[in-house]
Amino acid sequence: MGDYRRVSDTQDQSAPSSRVQAPAPSPAPASQPVKPVIAAAAAKRANASVIGMIIALVVSVAAFLPIVLMNPSPKSDGYRPNIDVSAVAGNAAGVAGFTPVTPAPGDTFHPNYARWAAAAGTGVPAWEVGYVTPKEKFIGLTQTSKANPTWLLQQTRNAPVTGTRNAGGREWELHDTGKGEKSMVLAYRGTTVVLAGDANLDEFAVLAAAVVKSLESNPAVIVSPSASPAP
């Protein structure tokens, strides 16, 4: 019995003593952001500035709006140059050797150029006028007294002859590329006139009739035969 007590006392003494741990200190609370405080007078001035800008913008728009409304956008389809075909033709007559045609197909046809073209490009000097048709297509007029087969192929884009078309009481030779481009050719009163473009045949006929009328009002061109070479 005495031994048992000694063992028990020894076991009790060898047991580790329990220690009470102190709680860990809690982290310091994060500092709160400081909200700037605007004085009432400053806030009032800021609001007044914004309101003033809005009022100024409204006044500016109100001032310019009547001007815009009184000047509507033009309804034209584009810029149309003011070409005086008759005046340009009168200047070209001195070097052409013939009176250039000045057709009058009506106010719905608008010329966009008129000029005398020297022989530098095609080898044949010619009178040229371009027309915008009522359907916003194009027909170019070319007239010369020195036409040749090569020049004619150039003007008609090598298109074959597909028939004839009567306009102004004359039979015009019709060339058609099959791709929208077509030409009408008339050799009359000493000159050759070519009309070429992408307009429809009805518009071609209107311009062609006006060309015939102009040709018949001008003096015919007398082509002198080529001089025979000296033997």
Q: How does this model look, in words?
A:
By secondary structure, this protein is α+β, with helices and mostly antiparallel strands. The longest helix has 31 residues, at 40-70. The protein is elongated, with a radius of gyration of 48 Å. β6 and β7 form a beta hairpin. A seven-stranded antiparallel beta sheet has the order 1-2-3-7-6-5-4. Helix content is 35%, strand content 22%. It is built from five helices and seven strands.
Topology:
Blueprint: H1 2-14, H2 40-70, H3 85-96, E1 110-117, E2 126-132, E3 138-144, H4 149-155, E4 161-167, E5 170-176, E6 182-188, E7 191-197, H5 201-217
Antiparallel strand pairs: 1-2, 2-3, 3-7, 4-5, 5-6, 6-7
Helix count, DSSP H or I runs of 4 or more residues: 5
Unreliable parts: 1-18, 68-76, 226-231
Helical/strand content category: alpha+beta
Strand order of the largest sheet: 1-2-3-7-6-5-4
How much is the average pLDDT? Answer: 81
Biggest β-sheet: count, sense, barrel? 7 strands, antiparallel
**End-to-end CA span:** 172 Å
**Cα shape:** elongated
Helix content: 25-40%
Rg, alpha carbons: 48 Å
The number of distinct β-strands equals 7
